[in-house]
Amino acid sequence: MFRSFAVSAATALALASPLAAQSGGFGEDLDDEGRAALRAEIRDYLMAHPEVIFEAVAEFERRNVEQQADMDATLVEINADDIFDDGYSWVGGNPDGDITLVEFMDYRCSFCRRAFPQMMDFAESDGNVRLVVKEFPILGPESETMSRFAVAVHQLGGDETYFAAHERLMSWEGEVRDSALGGLASELGLDAEAVLERMDTAAVSEIISSNRALAQRLQISGTPSFVMGTADGNAEMLRGFLPAEELHNLASQLRG
């Protein structure tokens, strides 16, 4: 962070004088000697008061965050149906809850694994949260295989069986082999061969492709990423891991 601020400060110092002399009419009537004097005065001021540069950088970053939030809100509004009610993603928690929390996740993502118990704790302690999981494998072939397995289980076994598989995959250790996945399918009460065959079908591929396309439209490139929203359209995008306490705080803000 210090390096980032230092680079920004150096850039600001290098650019401040000529920009000040050229923008808004300030100094535009000066001759070359006057401009040089003005630039020297600005430089001396900034060297004497370097905190001004950091204040400017902080304000610049604040405005960027604000602009990103506005853009996120627009993207969520445009894609609301696909985010909250796509018709194929797992829905848990309280299906009639006044808050919906949607997660884009990858089973090989360590932060997704950290987020999972926090998300469940939030939903259970609140009691009025609808959960939606978007399979979004981005960390390689094993991630893809695990998501394909989860989607196949969901299609053949329904929501309850999917969640049982989801829990197991969230704590999966070691390599991802068909034999191990087949064994898990059998433990879940499903036909292992049918699940493994289903994994490579167009029905599964279409869901993963749709989730990736939605993530691209939302400018989501990492996991976990969340969207929290209310039935009346008040929503916010959350990029990265958040503990249960922060999820509660955001839910309270969205509820008003």
CATH superfamily of the largest domain: Glutaredoxin
Helix content percent band: 55-70%
The strand line-up of the biggest sheet is 1-3-2-4-5
- Count every helix, treating DSSP H or I runs of 4 or more residues as helices: 10
Give a structural overview.
The protein is an alpha+beta fold and 256 residues long. The protein has two domains: 2-72, no CATH class; 80-255, Glutaredoxin (3-Layer(aba) Sandwich). It is built from ten helices and five strands; from the N terminus they run ααααββαβααααββα. The protein has helices at residues 2-22, 32-48, 51-78, 80-84, 110-126, 141-170, 178-187, 192-198, 202-217, 244-255, and strands spanning 90-93, 99-105, 129-135, 225-230, 235-239. The chain has a five-stranded mixed beta sheet with strand order 1-3-2-4-5, sandwiched between helices. α1 (2-22) packs antiparallel against α2 (32-48), α5 (110-126) crosses α10 and α7 crosses α8 (192-198). The protein starts with a helix and ends with a helix. Mean pLDDT is 87; it is low at 1-24.
